[in-house]
Design goal:
The protein has one domain (about 1-255). It is about 35% helix and about 20% strand. It has 11 helices and 9 strands. The chain has a 7-stranded mixed sheet with strand order 3-4-2-1-5-9-8, with helices on both faces. A hairpin with a 7-residue loop joins strand 3 (about 115) and strand 4. The relative contact order is 0.17.
């Protein structure tokens, strides 16, 4: 674990900070304790006053997500109804993070003391002194915007650690999309647990977001904010560490320049 903590220090992780981690653990290499060992190294680097955050989204739970659309592609009406009936309702305390989020997200979510935001599609989990504040507000119609934990991460001057994760998966970039003058609206639907063991669908309108421009925006960010970005390795995995505020500011400027 000591070597991993040293890697985090070299990247720029400091005690007392707030850190959102998005990681491909397979790329890190063998670690004692596997995902639990990774969490232990991250918490050691952050110290007692630091807060560790993970994106624990459940896109399979949304009838507009790419994962849902892939699951029902080619099904007839009866097949779609059967699939929808099998969809597990979101429960903040019990629903696992999607496997697409990576094992580390689920490890953080299930660590004792973790708190989770309540959005049925785009939740976050956090460990540490700021966990309650970071996760207490996550409005249904604001997946990743100003009334979500992403805004709180920006306000906390948090950093993001990408561990062999493509820039197209950089979740905090979405906050820049919410800052557009007139973001396109989209209708969403998710199935949730009602607290009494029953399931129900909730439907709402919220800004539509996309990742298709993130790689191009990241290129601009890497060039414009190179002095604020730490680059190196976490274990064997190529990694980047950077401030949420700098990332959102850079992508906002990029979107404005594109007329988006």
């Amino acid at each position: 674990m000591a070597e991993l903590v040293d890697d985090l220090r070299a990247l720029g992780v400091r005690e007392g900070g707030t850190l959102l981690v998005q990681a491909s653990l397979r790329s890190v290499g063998p670690v004692a304790g596997r995902s639990a060992g990774i969490v232990a190294a991250l918490r050691e680097a952050l110290g007692r006053e630091g807060t560790l955050v993970a994106y624990t989204a459940t896109p399979e739970n949304s009838e507009t997500s790419l994962l849902y659309r892939r699951a029902v592609a080619g099904l007839d009406a009866a097949g779609v109804r059967a699939h929808r009936a099998r969809m597990a309702p979101f429960d903040r305390d019990r629903t696992p993070a999607s496997p697409t989020m990576g094992r580390l997200s689920e490890e953080i979510r299930t660590t004792e003391g973790a708190l989770r935001s309540g959005h049925p599609q785009t939740s976050f989990a956090a460990l540490g002194p700021l966990a309650g504040w970071l996760t207490e507000r996550h409005d249904l119609d604001c997946h990743l915007g100003e009334r979500s934990p992403v805004q709180r991460l920006l306000e906390a001057d948090a950093r993001v650690l990408l561990v062999d994760v493509p820039w197209s998966c950089c979740t905090v970039f979405h906050l820049a999309e919410y800052g557009r003058p007139d973001p396109p609206a989209q209708r969403y639907g998710c199935v949730v647990a009602d607290g009494a063991g029953a399931r129900r669908w909730v439907r709402f309108t919220a800004p539509g977001v996309t990742t298709e421009h993130f790689e191009a925006a990241a290129g601009e960010f890497l060039d414009a904010c190179r002095d604020e970005i730490g680059a190196g390795h976490f274990g064997k995995a190529p990694s980047f560490l950077f401030p949420v505020r700098a990332a959102v500011g850079s992508v906002s400027k990029w979107l404005a320049a594109q007329g988006s």
